[in-house]
Amino acid sequence: MEPAVVVGAVVVTAGYVTRLLYRWINERSEVKRTELAQTGLSERVRSLPAGSRLVERDGAKCVEIEVGIAGPSGSR
């Protein structure tokens, strides 16, 4: 094979691997951010007394939690 073909194939492969690695890192970061947000929310909810209501709005997300209120299944 000619060196130019080999170099071209290596460059294309490196580009694909770089894009794949970039997507993996971004998605893993998003998972970590979501885990941290959920952990913080859980900690805040645990500190509230029964009957409290917590509403959080973050951009397009809105979370409403009522502490000690029966859910749709009828369980607490």
- Outline, from the CA principal axes? rod-shaped
The helix fraction, in percent, is 55-70%
Number of DSSP-assigned strands: 2
Strand order of the largest sheet: 1-2
Distance between the termini: 70 Å
Profile the largest sheet: 2 strands, antiparallel
- Which class of secondary structure composition applies to the elements? alpha+beta
Strand content: 15-25%
Radius of gyration: 24 Å
Contiguous low-pLDDT stretches (5 residues minimum) are: none
Number of alpha- plus pi-helical segments: 1
Mean pLDDT, nearest integer?
A: 89
Order of helices and strands: HEE
Describe the protein:
By secondary structure, this protein is an alpha+beta fold. 58% of the residues lie in helices and 16% in strands. It is built from 1 helix and 2 strands; from the N terminus they run αββ. It has one helix at 3-46, and strands at residues 53-58, 61-66. It has a two-stranded antiparallel sheet with strand order 1-2. β1 and β2 form a beta hairpin. The radius of gyration is 24 Å and the shape is rod-shaped. The model has no long low-confidence stretch (mean pLDDT 89).
What would a concise description of this structure say?
The chain is an alpha+beta fold and 76 residues long. It is built from one helix and two strands; from the N terminus they run αββ.
